[in-house]
Each structure stands twice: as structure tokens, then as C-alpha cells.
């Protein structure tokens, strides 16, 4: 009969360990000790199947290695060979239980073959191609999420270093340190917002309240034409300062007694939430300008 050679009916079954990496497949046949290294591609798999064809293979063991083992598993399964894919940790624990500490590709292949003979793990059928593709996408998403967390952590550490350097340089200049302390004394304004005000509104203390509000972009701008009186809205100004003032206003609306009462009066008067926040922003900027002009810290009761 031509074609595939059939093993002898009473031949001793053999167990094959396959150590998988991206480029190579290291193969060990137990108990004969026969070894082979082939490329982890279609050509290498053809060589491997030719080697295994005359052997009474009971089980082929390989570790789950991401996507690198899948082509070999699918090809060997299609050739009617029983393949078991095992958890790498389980294989490592078996090796340690067998007294083997050293780890090479050839050693791993031998131990996988011995593990197959000792434990005879169940055959693992390859998943459908569609499911495999979804698994690839899910794994890619998991990796991207981990990378995003790593980058966020790196950015957070960088921001913390910048904060420390900003604080150091502000404290090194007495005049700037005083202005910073005045701003930080206002409930609702923290060290970072105070630094943004210092850098973005250097005119604080040297301009009028209206000018300070216009520079920060928190002063309503007229929108009138002829008999028409349009709705006033804030526009222009310095965006970093306006953004910082917005966050400070949210805090001040709850923790600054005067501004919390001011916000409550506006709400009770039916003002929309956005208008209330903008009004508190303007009050904060005007207050900051006034305190720096007078060179005094904020106190609950103004002198």
C-alpha cells in the first residue's frame, strides 16, 4: 500500500514534546530520545509531520505561547495527531517536581514529552478561526490598556516633577512667593491654580478689576446691535487661566463661605448653573487682583 506508513499494532506509543518560540519548534520524542529543530512555519511543520508519520504518537504536548503555537497546533491537529496545549506554569512546576532547574528549549521539549507520558493530558482542539481572531483582538486590547496605564503613570510622575520644580522656583523669589501665598490663601485656589494665575496673569495687582476679568476671559462681552440686545457671553481671554479659574470656582462654590453664599443667591434667583459658575470665576479673579493689589492674605472678614 502506498502513502502514509502505518505503525505496528503493538508498537509502544511515543510522546512528543514541542517547545515553541516565534522562530523555532524544538521537538523531543519520548522514550526514544529523538530530537529535531524546525522552523515555526509551513515548511518546518511539513518536516515535523514527515518525522512523526511513522511513529505511534499518543500525544503531542506544547505550551500555550500567545499566538506562536497556534499554527503548529492547527496543522498537527489537521494531520490527525492528538495535541494537548498546557499552561506554561503547569509545565514549569512539573519540571521542578522532576528535579530539573535548568531551562533551555531542548530541555523544555524533553520535559513536555515526559509530562505527556506521565500525565497524559487531554487533547486540546484548536478553536474556530473566527474565535481565534476575536481572541487576538481581545489580547491586543488588553495589551493596549496596560500600555495606556503605563503611559498615564509615566505622565503622572512627570507632572509631579514639574510641580516640584515650579514650587521650588516660586519659593526662590520672595516677591513671587508672596503673591503665590496670597493666592493660595483664597479658599478654592490651590498651589497649581495659583501658579497658573502667576504665570498667565502677571498683570494681577497692577490692573483694574474689569481689566483682570477681561484678561482672564471671564467678563461678559456685549452683543448688541441697533434695537437688538443680544445675550452676553464670555469670550477671548487667556484659556489656561480661564480653565484654571473654572476648576477653582467649582471648589470655591462649596468651600469659600462668601462665594458659596453668592452662588446660592444666584441659583435661588433662577440663574442657570453655567452662568453661576462663570460669575464665581469672575469673583475669584477680581478677588485675587484685589488681594495682590493690597498685598494681604484672604481673611473671612475683610479689613
Domains (count): 2
Query: Ends: how far apart?
Result: 111 Å
SSE order = EEEHEHEHHHHHHEEHHH
Across the major sheet, the strand order is 3-2-1-4-5
Q: What average pLDDT do the residues reach?
A: 90
| C-alpha geometry | elongated
> Tally the helices: what do you get?
11
Low-pLDDT residue spans: 1-6
- The percentage of residues in β strands lies in 5-15%
Structural class: alpha/beta
Number of DSSP E strands: 7
Major β-sheet profile: 5 strands, mixed
- Binned, the helix content reads 55-70%
Radius of gyration: 37 Å
How would you describe what is shown here?
The chain has two domains: 14-131, Nucleotidyltransferase, domain 5; 165-294, no CATH class. It contains eleven helices and seven strands. The chain has helices spanning 42-52, 70-78, 88-97, 105-119, 129-171, 174-184, 191-200, 209-216, 239-255, 257-268, 273-294, and strands at 14-20, 24-30, 35-39, 57-63, 83-86, 224-225, 228-229. The strands form two sheets. Strands 3-2-1-4-5 form a five-stranded mixed sheet. A two-stranded antiparallel sheet has the order 6-7. The protein is elongated.
Summarize the structure.
Helix content is 55%, strand content 11%.
Overview features:
single chain, 303 residues, alpha/beta, Nucleotidyltransferase, domain 5, 2 domains, two-stranded antiparallel ribbon, 55% helix, elongated, disordered N terminus
Task: Record the SSE blueprint.
Layout (H helix, E strand, L loop, with lengths): L13 E7 L3 E7 L4 E5 L2 H11 L4 E7 L6 H9 L4 E4 L1 H10 L7 H15 L9 H43 L2 H11 L6 H10 L8 H8 L7 E2 L2 E2 L9 H17 L1 H12 L4 H22 L9
Parallel strand pairs: 1-4, 4-5
Antiparallel strand pairs: 1-2, 2-3, 6-7
Amino acid at each position: 500500500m502506498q502513502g502514509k506508513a502505518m505503525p505496528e499494532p503493538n508498537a509502544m506509543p511515543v510522546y512528543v514534546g514541542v517547545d515553541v518560540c516565534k522562530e523555532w519548534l524544538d521537538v523531543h520524542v519520548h522514550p526514544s530520545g529523538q530530537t529535531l529543530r524546525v522552523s515555526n512555519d509551513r515548511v518546518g511543520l511539513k518536516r515535523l509531520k514527515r518525522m512523526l508519520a511513522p511513529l505511534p504518537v499518543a500525544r503531542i504536548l506544547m505550551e500555550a505561547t500567545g499566538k506562536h503555537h497556534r499554527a503548529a497546533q492547527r496543522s498537527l491537529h489537521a494531520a490527525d495527531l492528538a495535541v494537548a496545549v498546557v499552561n506554561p506554569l503547569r509545565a514549569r512546576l512539573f519540571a521542578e517536581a522532576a528535579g530539573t532547574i535548568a531551562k533551555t528549549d531542548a530541555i523544555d521539549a524533553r520535559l513536555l514529552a515526559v509530562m505527556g507520558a506521565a500525565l497524559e493530558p487531554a487533547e486540546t482542539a484548536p478553536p474556530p478561526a473566527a474565535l481565534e481572531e476575536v481572541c487576538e483582538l481581545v489580547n491586543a486590547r488588553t495589551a493596549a490598556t496596560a500600555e495606556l496605564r503605563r503611559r498615564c503613570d509615566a505622565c503622572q510622575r512627570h507632572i509631579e516633577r514639574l510641580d516640584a520644580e515650579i514650587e521650588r522656583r516660586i519659593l526662590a523669589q520672595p516677591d513671587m512667593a508672596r503673591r503665590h501665598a496670597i493666592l493660595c490663601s483664597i479658599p478654592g485656589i490651590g498651589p497649581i491654580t495659583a501658579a497658573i494665575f502667576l504665570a498667565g496673569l502677571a498683570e494681577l495687582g497692577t490692573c483694574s478689576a474689569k481689566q483682570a476679568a477681561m484678561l482672564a476671559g471671564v467678563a461678559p462681552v456685549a452683543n448688541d446691535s441697533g434695537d437688538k440686545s443680544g445675550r452676553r457671553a464670555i469670550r477671548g481671554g487667556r484659556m489656561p487661566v480661564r480653565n484654571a479659574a473654572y476648576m477653582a470656582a467649582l471648589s470655591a462654590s462649596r468651600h469659600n463661605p462668601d462665594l458659596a453664599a453668592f452662588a446660592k443667591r444666584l441659583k435661588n434667583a433662577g440663574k442657570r448653573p453655567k452662568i453661576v459658575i462663570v460669575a464665581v470665576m469672575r469673583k475669584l479673579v477680581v478677588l485675587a487682583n484685589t488681594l495682590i493689589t493690597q498685598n494681604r492674605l484672604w481673611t473671612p472678614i475683610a479689613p
